[in-house]
Design goal:
elongated; 349 residues
C-alpha cells in the first residue's frame, strides 16, 4: 500500500468515525432540541422581566431565577388548570344532556333567515335541531366525528405544549443565570462560522426573537387571556377550549372575532339577558382590536415582519411540531426571514 493510499484510508476512516459520532450525538440530543429552542425564545423574550426581578431583590441572580421559575410556572399552569376544569365540566354537561335527551336547542330567531347568503340554510338547520336534534347529528355525523377527533388531538397537543413550556422555563432560567457565558458562546459560534457577519447575524436573531415573541406570541396570549375572562364571566361552556382556539388564531394573525362572534350568537340563542349580551359584545370588540394597542405598548412600534411570513411560520410549525410549533414556527421563520433579508442587503466583497 502506497503512502497516498494509506493517507486516503486514514482520512476515510476518520470521516466515517466523525460522521457516526455526529449522527449518534444528534440522535441523543434530538429529544432536547425543542425544549432548548423554546427555552432560548423564552429567555430572550423574558430577559427584561428577569432583569427586573434580579434588580428588585438586590442582584441575587440565583434567587431571581427561582422566583422567575415559580412566577412563570404559575402563569402557565394556574390558568391551564382552571380553564381545563371549565372545559371538562362543560363537556360532561353537554354529554350527559345529550345522552339523556335533555339537550334542547331553542328555535332560531326570525332575523336569522334574513342573513345574506347563508341565512335560509342556517335558519332551517337551526329549527330542525331545535325539534329533532338526533336527525341533525345523523346528517352531520362525519363532520361531528371529525370535529371531535380534531378537538381531542388539539387537547393532547395542548397538554404536551404546557409540559414542554414548563421544562423550557426551567432551562430558560438557567440560561439567564449564565447569560454572559451563553451570549459569548453564541457570538463565538457565529464568528466561527462567518466572522463579523456571523456575530451580527446572532445579534439580529436575538432582536428578531424578542420582537416576534412579544409582538406576536405575547399579544396572542394576552388576547386569549382576555377572551377567556369574558367567556367565563358570560357563562359560555368550554371556555378553555375556545380560549385555546383564539390563541391559535391570534398567533396566525387571525381575529378572535371568528370565535367570539359565534359566542355572541350563542348568548342570543340562549335567551341571555340583554345586559350580558351587550357587555360581552363590547368585551369582544375590545379583545378583537386590542392588538393595535398592545403591539405598540410591548414593542414601542409594531412588528415590521410581514404578516404572511408569520402566518407561514405558524402554520408550518403547527404541521411540523404540533401546537408548540405554532409559536416556534412563527419566531424561527421570522428570524430566518430577517437574516435572509440582511444577507441580501449586504454588499459582497
Amino acid at each position: 500500500m502506497t503512502d497516498l493510499e494509506r493517507k486516503a484510508t486514514q482520512v476515510a476512516v476518520r470521516l466515517v468515525v466523525v460522521g457516526l459520532l455526529t449522527f449518534w450525538c444528534s440522535a441523543i440530543f434530538r429529544p432536547f432540541l425543542m425544549p432548548l429552542v423554546w427555552a432560548i425564545v423564552l429567555g430572550v423574550a423574558l430577559r427584561p422581566a428577569f432583569t427586573w426581578i434580579e434588580r428588585t431583590i438586590g442582584g441575587r441572580r440565583k434567587w431571581a431565577a427561582i422566583l422567575f421559575v415559580v412566577l412563570c410556572l404559575g402563569v402557565v399552569f394556574v390558568p391551564t388548570i382552571l380553564l381545563s376544569e371549565s372545559l371538562i365540566v362543560g363537556v360532561r354537561s353537554v354529554s350527559s344532556k345529550l345522552e339523556g335527551g335533555e339537550l334542547k336547542i331553542p328555535p332560531a330567531p326570525e332575523r336569522v333567515a334574513q342573513w345574506p347568503i347563508v341565512g335560509p340554510t342556517v335558519y332551517e338547520t337551526w329549527n330542525l335541531a331545535s325539534t329533532n336534534l338526533d336527525s341533525v347529528l345523523q346528517q352531520f355525523r362525519p363532520q361531528v366525528k371529525a370535529l371531535g377527533m380534531g378537538l381531542i388531538a388539539l387537547a393532547k397537543q395542548s397538554a404536551v405544549a404546557v409540559l414542554l413550556t414548563g421544562v423550557a422555563v426551567v432551562i430558560a432560567a438557567f440560561l439567564l443565570v449564565r447569560r454572559e457565558v451563553v451570549v459569548k458562546i453564541a457570538l463565538g459560534i457565529g464568528a466561527r462560522i462567518a466572522g463579523d457577519d456571523g456575530e451580527e447575524a446572532v445579534r439580529l436573531a436575538g432582536q428578531t426573537i424578542a420582537t416576534v415573541a412579544k409582538g406576536v406570541v405575547g399579544v396572542a396570549a394576552i388576547q386569549a387571556a382576555l377572551a377567556a375572562v369574558g367567556l367565563v364571566v358570560a357563562g359560555i361552556p368550554g371556555a378553555g377550549l375556545w380560549s385555546l382556539i383564539i390563541l391559535v388564531l391570534a398567533v396566525a394573525q387571525l381575529p378572535p372575532l371568528l370565535v367570539l362572534g359565534p359566542a355572541i350568537l350563542y348568548l342570543v340563542a340562549k335567551d341571555a339577558s340583554m345586559t350580558t349580551i351587550v357587555l360581552f359584545s363590547i368585551w369582544t370588540l375590545v379583545v378583537s382590536v386590542s392588538d393595535g394597542l398592545l403591539k405598540p405598548l410591548l414593542l414601542g412600534r409594531g412588528s415590521d415582519t410581514p404578516v404572511l411570513v408569520i402566518l407561514i411560520g405558524a402554520i408550518g410549525g403547527l404541521i411540523l411540531h404540533g401546537l408548540i410549533g405554532l409559536f416556534l414556527g412563527a419566531v424561527v421563520f421570522s428570524t430566518g426571514y430577517r437574516l435572509f433579508g440582511r444577507w441580501m442587503e449586504s454588499n459582497p466583497a
